[in-house]
Specification:
alpha/beta, Rossmann fold, N-(1-d-carboxylethyl)-l-norvaline Dehydrogenase, domain 2, 2 domains, 8-stranded mixed beta sheet, 14 helices
């Protein structure tokens, strides 16, 4: 297939490389030129600006995948792209946008007869190697036509049509809130290991063995082991854990719907607390986020 791709950040660049590996034609644009040059060497078609990108797409309908930070940056890019596209063309937002924003984008683009798909993407940096997990909201017939793209991007059986517009980002929002809760549980467990009855435990070895067949074996436990192998005291980290928004949105949604959401809401609040407290648990949380997603850390 053919696709235009805007945004070659931590995940976007690796997604393009997976598409190129399966011989899809990918026209790319990024604000900074270095990632464009990198993927061009692998076969991507570079573009000088958004209009140039759209013009270089040869098939109909034209498909534009936007992989940018949620909020104002994505909003402005969707509006900019929509001015250039024609009836029947498709815009995909693969970032971590608020599902309510995605519903509004759908309504605005529908008036222009432009299709809009919202896709929650999970997999972090590891997704480049093993494939991503994708939750797709929008027109089901378009989802079916785009399956060759999803098969190239995703791990086997790692994508699904969720429902109408906004649902892809809604599911991703709740996925990320669960992720917050799971990471909090891991971090607190290792805090007790580090400061409990038995001193000088080899935390990296414990994490590694838990990654092989235990009930809590998981992608996050793999990242825990990876972080601890670098420094099992995590002494280079400040106990500051950032949050990217989805956990807050999910906690608010739970309040609005009167649905108990205790663990995941606590995990969001705990990140706020991390900015005040010197705790191994919060250093552990920061390290795991950095391992699986390349998220920023604050060093001492």
């Amino acid at each position: 297939m053919e696709i235009g791709f805007i945004g070659l950040g931590r995940m976007g660049k690796n997604m393009v490389l997976r598409l190129l590996k399966d011989n899809h034609r990918v026209v790319v644009w990024n604000r900074s030129p270095e990632p464009v040059k990198e993927v061009e060497k692998k076969g991507a078609v570079p573009s000088s600006d958004i209009e140039d990108l759209v013009n270089k797409l040869q098939s109909k309908p034209k498909i534009i995948w936007i992989m940018l930070p949620a909020g104002d940056v994505t909003d402005k890019m969707i509006k900019k792209v929509a001015l250039i596209l024609q009836h029947g063309d498709i815009i995909i937002d693969g970032g971590n946008s608020n599902f309510r924003d995605s519903i509004e984008h759908y309504k605005e683009l529908k008036q222009k007869n432009i299709e809009f798909m919202d896709i929650g993407v999970s997999g972090g940096l590891k997704g480049a190697e093993v494939g991503y997990c994708m939750m797709v909201g929008g027109n089901k017939s378009i989802y079916k036509k785009m399956q060759p793209l999803f098969k190239s991007l995703c791990i086997k059986e790692g994508f699904a049509y969720i429902g109408k517009n906004g649902s892809g980002h809604y599911i991703k929002m709740i996925h990320n809130a669960i992720e917050y809760g799971m990471m909090q549980a891991i971090a607190e467990g290792f805090d007790l290991l580090a400061n409990g009855h038995y001193k000088d435990l080899k935390l990296d070895e414990i994490a590694d063995v838990w990654s092989h067949g235990s009930i809590i074996t998981s992608f996050l436990m793999d990242m825990t082991a990876s972080a601890l192998k670098k420094d099992d005291k995590l002494s280079y980290l400040k106990p500051y854990v950032d949050d990217s928004g989805e956990g807050r949105w999910a906690a608010k949604e739970a309040i609005d719907q009167a649905v108990p959401f205790l663990v995941n809401t606590f995990a969001v609040q705990s990140r706020f607390a991390s900015r005040e407290k010197n705790s191994f648990a919060y250093r552990m949380l920061a390290a795991i986020r950095n391992e699986f997603g390349g998220h920023p850390i604050k060093k001492k």
